């Protein structure tokens, strides 16, 4: 397939990264996990004792941060100033503070610039919240993945249990709802379906079922 841009957006635990990674592997495209970038900035703040709610202090960190990826499937490694942070960026502390950090305009400007730079290098599957609306407005394929909040919380619960994390299903559901609310109501580039995105409700669908449905959407959009 020609090197096109595929944007996958949607709320927390809709299956974006799982689906995007499989597609990128199958198409031999680069996968970019933009959430990992906002998570890395949040981790940097927490590590350096900077309050994530203090916008100016978080912004002051930006010139000193270098976020990079090492391709890999199923796990793409994430590095912050050369140190691997692949697991650290998934901690509850990071998850609980990332929406605040991602609401800051200067943080978004810096991350979006890096995301566009990567996308300019060839075929890309990028997942996030504002890829179809802001980062890659001309992406050939835009998919907006959704699922009921109950199912999304259950997916994250099972994933966390497998990692030995101990939050209850109710706690995870509340955290997912809160993050979705913050991400959808922020001023800059809120979580929103792009006008030309195809919405896919994945409630009750297996991972393979979603991959097949997205491949169908790609075929309809680019005729392959
Ligand atoms: O995988 P999960 O749904 O837990 O979230 P993520 O994709 O890792 O994103 C973490 C957070 O980063 C989101 O809740 C948003 O606050 C922020 N984010 C964003 O603002 N814009 C993006 N393009 C991607 C993530
Ligand atoms: O990236 P995002 O937060 O949207 O979700 P994810 O991390 O790809 O998926 C969250 C969890 O749901 C993972 O454990 C996936 O294996 C699982 N999942 C699922 O059970 N069924 C799907 N159709 C998609 C994802």
From TrEMBL:
The reaction(s) this protein catalyses: dCMP + ATP = dCDP + ADP; CMP + ATP = CDP + ADP
SUPFAM superfamilies recorded: P-loop containing nucleoside triphosphate hydrolases
Leading EC class: transferase
GO CC aspect terms: cytosol
Keyword annotations of the record: ATP-binding, Cytoplasm, Kinase, Nucleotide-binding, Transferase
GO BP terms, alphabetized: nucleobase-containing small molecule interconversion; pyrimidine nucleotide metabolic process
Name of the protein described by the UniProt record: Cytidylate kinase
Gene: cmk
